[in-house]
UniProtKB/TrEMBL annotation:
SUPFAM superfamilies the record matches: NAD(P)-binding Rossmann-fold domains (SSF51735)
Boundaries of every NmrA-like domain copy: 4-310
InterPro entries referenced in this protein's UniProt entry, alphabetically: NAD(P)-bd_dom_sf (IPR036291), NmrA-like (IPR008030), NmrA-type/Isoflavone_red_sf (IPR050608), PCBER-like (IPR045312)
Coiled-coil boundaries: none
Family: Belongs to the NmrA-type oxidoreductase family. Isoflavone reductase subfamily.
One biological process term in Gene Ontology: (-)-secoisolariciresinol biosynthetic process
Name of the molecule in the record: (+)-lariciresinol reductase
EC number(s) recorded for this UniProt protein: 1.23.1.1, 1.23.1.2
Length: 314
């Protein structure tokens, strides 16, 4: 008999990635709980989103990071906790709030697996990352340390580049709609990166939660057809629009000098683009014993290719 599917709590379910996790969890037939904070005010979009989750079968729970008991009560209802709390400085960065969630999970004692808010570059590979962007990786590592010390079973998900940010902007920071005229290459535009449709990140994540092969491991979502350089992404776009873009290039030195002129939140994001697009930090290592690759684990999933993703901008 097939094992029963885990009950899942999603924290941060109203977010950019979180809402996709809710959708994927429901689609996979998990009993899905969504924790939302009480301070909704008159945010009508958020209420409508929560109601749409409820309509699709999710259980809504009110809870706050300022109310330890509300967190304990929520995690007691489920087997798996997935957190997708914000971690992008140009939106908000609340990664360390998860230390309170770790506390609650430890106290509740029933959770079989916790997936903290990661979903991007593997922070364990970024110990030499530059200031100020390294804060993202440092904070994610603090959460890892706390949950591992609390002996909470975990899965870390490295979703590499969210397609909406990276493909939408042809890998140019600060842009999320592809131009039909011009692109600025970061350096020579040749280091490969990995682009993943956010809905696919959510789908692979939900696949992983009940899989013994991903227990206490990092799941890298690295679909082979989506490992491409900025130049290759631009070529795909050019083919789709039937036109060659005018190209300029910004050297590493110019990029870093321009970064210093920006405000703090922008600098954090630019640091990440620097490591991905100039240094190739997503592809310059082999997945070791502590990791598994999602498209190999779940070959039955037809992931979205870069070309398919980019068609939406035509
Ligand atoms: N690899 C990539 O390219 C990439 C890109 C983007 C994000 N990421 C990663 O993905 C993860 C999720 O990011 P996201 O952009 O999806 O997040 P987001 O949309 O900015 O926010 C996610 C959630 O955080 C909640 N939240 C924010 N502040 C809160 C607080 N003080 N108390 C309680 N809840 C709070 C929001 O709840 P409310 O709706 O109530 O505000 C929302 O549900 C992060 O770890 C981030 O670093 C990776």
């Amino acid at each position: 008999m097939a094992a029963e599917k885990s009950k899942v709590l999603i924290v941060g379910g109203t977010g950019y990635l979180g809402k996709r996790l809710v959708k994927a969890s429901l689609a996979a037939g998990h009993q899905t709980y969504v924790l939302h904070r009480p301070e909704i005010g008159v945010d009508i979009d958020k209420v409508q989103l929560l109601l749409s989750f409820k309509h699709q079968g999710a259980h809504l729970l009110t809870g706050s990071f300022d109310d330890h008991h509300s967190l304990v009560n929520a995690v007691k209802l489920v087997d798996v906790v997935i957190c997708a709390i914000s971690g992008v400085h140009i939106r908000t960065h609340q990664i360390l709030l998860q230390l309170k969630l770790v506390h609650a999970i430890k106290e509740a004692g029933n959770v079989k697996r916790f997936l903290p808010s990661e979903f991007g570059t593997d922070p364990a590979k970024m110990d030499k990352a530059m200031e100020p962007g390294r804060i993202t990786f440092d904070d994610k590592m603090k959460v890892r340390k706390a949950l591992e010390e609390a002996r909470i079973p975990y899965t870390y998900v490295s979703g590499n580049c969210f397609a909406g940010y990276f493909l939408g902007g042809l890998c140019q920071p600060g842009q999320i709609l592809p131009s039909k005229d011009h692109v600025e290459l970061l350096g020579d535009g040749n280091p490969p990166a990995i682009y993943v449709d956010e809905d696919d990140i959510a789908m692979y994540t939900i696949k992983a939660i009940d899989d013994p092969r991903t227990l206490n491991k990092t799941v890298y979502i690295s679909p082979p057809k989506n490992i491409l350089s900025q130049r290759q992404v631009v070529e795909i776009w050019e083919k789709l629009i039937g036109k060659e873009l005018h190209k300029s290039s910004i050297s590493k030195e110019e990029f870093l000098a321009a970064m210093k002129e920006q405000d703090y939140a922008e600098q954090v994001g630019l640091t990440h683009y620097y490591h991905v697009c100039y240094e190739g930090c997503l592809t310059n290592f082999e997945i070791g014993d502590g990791g598994v690759e999602a498209s190999k684990l779940y070959p039955e999933i037809n992931y979205t290719t870069v070309e398919q993703y980019m068609r939406r901008y035509l």
